[in-house]
């Protein structure tokens, strides 16, 4: 029997309860992982409060983590007991142990710590598909990333700069602005003090951006569209301030025949080959030092409710993890 954070009803952080959970037998293709740490992400909030629909109630939240394989089910030949593995996409990371499909894990290279591995699998692989596949960022591109001082933002800013782009970000305080400037951004706009579309136009001499990556949602829409050049791309991949409502497609025409997409990590890594390629690219860029990962907040697993309060209040920077 292992302990876990359990959600029995949808609601605020108070619904995250610390409870013992019965262990179950492994099915074919599954492994049991004793966890070292789990990542904390806004998607966990969305499932907890009902923005995204969980498969069932009760459930254990959490989509990424790292640990050691302690049991291997039938039909697995490429993993062994004691292997250190990390994952994303599976449910149940807020737990002392997790049963997970072996197809969803990747061996962690020796040069990457448990804390970093727990912090990057969802956020880092999100940055990977956004920058390399949703829009292939490279030299000559100018891009805008909202929430520049967040977990995805700090990874994506460094990675985009490594790829040769001019990187503009937005942040909500002087401290967050300074943090983002230390992590790859050429310019960071404090959206509380400045009109960010006007500032983007100034910084780009009126050309605006090739692509805008927006995980904020309601608070930055439709202003994000005013930051995009003609025939550019709007990428909406989250809604930390609330969902975008009443998105009229005619706006894309009015703003310059723009393109728009609403991608997801699971959609881009639907196959084992896609997952492996994404993880390999992430481990390479982190292992090389081109992307440095900050773990700024650490919470004991049983304190997950406080972690969610801090995340929703935008009190956090960089990445946050639960230690186990």
Molecular structure report:
InterPro entries: ADH-like_C, ADH-like_N, ER, GroES-like_sf, NAD(P)-bd_dom_sf, QOR-like, Quin_OxRdtase/zeta-crystal_CS. This is NADPH2:quinone reductase. The protein is of the alpha/beta class. It has 2 domains: 174 residues, Medium-chain alcohol dehydrogenases, catalytic domain (Quinone Oxidoreductase, Chain A, domain 1), CATH 3.90.180; 124 residues, NAD(P)-binding Rossmann-like Domain (Rossmann fold). The chain has 9 helices and 15 strands. Helix 2 crosses helix 3 and helix 2 crosses helix 8.
Give me a quick take on this structure.
This protein is an alpha/beta fold and 324 residues long. It is 28% helix and 27% strand. The protein has 9 helices and 15 strands.
What is the topological layout?
Elements: E1 2-7, E2 16-21, E3 30-39, H1 42-49, E4 64-72, E5 84-88, E6 97-101, E7 105-107, H2 114-134, E8 142-145, H3 151-162, E9 166-171, H4 174-181, E10 187-190, H5 196-203, E11 209-214, E12 228-236, H6 250-254, E13 259-261, H7 265-268, H8 272-287, E14 295-300, H9 304-312, E15 319-323
Parallel strand pairs: 8-9, 8-11, 9-10, 11-12, 12-13, 14-15
Antiparallel strand pairs: 1-2, 3-4, 3-6, 3-15, 4-5, 5-7
């Amino acid at each position: 029997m292992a302990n876990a954070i359990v959600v029995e009803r949808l609601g605020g952080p108070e619904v995250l309860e610390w409870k013992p959970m019965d262990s179950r037998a492994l099915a074919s293709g599954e492994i049991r992982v004793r966890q070292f740490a789990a990542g904390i992400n806004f998607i966990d909030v969305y499932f907890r409060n009902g923005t995204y629909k969980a498969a069932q109630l009760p459930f254990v939240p959490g989509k990424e983590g790292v640990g050691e394989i302690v049991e291997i089910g039938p039909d697995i030949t490429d993993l062994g007991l004691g292997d250190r593995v990390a994952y994303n996409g599976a449910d149940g990371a807020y737990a002392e142990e997790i049963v997970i499909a072996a197809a969803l894990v990747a061996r962690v290279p020796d040069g990457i710590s448990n804390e970093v591995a727990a912090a990057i699998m969802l956020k880092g692989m999100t940055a990977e598909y956004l920058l390399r596949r949703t829009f292939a960022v490279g030299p000559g591109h100018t891009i805008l990333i909202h929430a520049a001082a967040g977990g995805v933002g700090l990874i994506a800013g460094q990675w985009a700069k490594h790829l040769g782009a001019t990187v503009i970000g937005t942040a909500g305080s002087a401290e967050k602005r300074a943090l983002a400037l230390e992590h790859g951004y050429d310019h960071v706009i404090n959206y509380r003090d400045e009109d960010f579309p006007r500032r983007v136009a100034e910084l780009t001499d009126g050309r605006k951006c090739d692509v805008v990556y927006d995980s904020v949602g309601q608070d930055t829409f439709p202003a994000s569209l005013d930051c995009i050049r003609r025939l550019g791309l709007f990428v909406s991949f989250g809604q930390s301030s609330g969902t975008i409502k009443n998105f009229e497609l005619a706006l894309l025409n009015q703003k310059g025949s723009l393109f728009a997409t609403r991608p997801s990590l699971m959609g881009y890594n639907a196959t084992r080959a896609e997952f492996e390629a994404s993880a390999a690219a992430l481990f390479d860029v982190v292992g090389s030092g081109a992307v440095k990962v900050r773990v700024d907040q650490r919470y004991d697993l049983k304190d997950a409710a406080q972690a969610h309060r801090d995340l929703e209040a935008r009190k956090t920077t960089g990445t946050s993890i639960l230690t186990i």
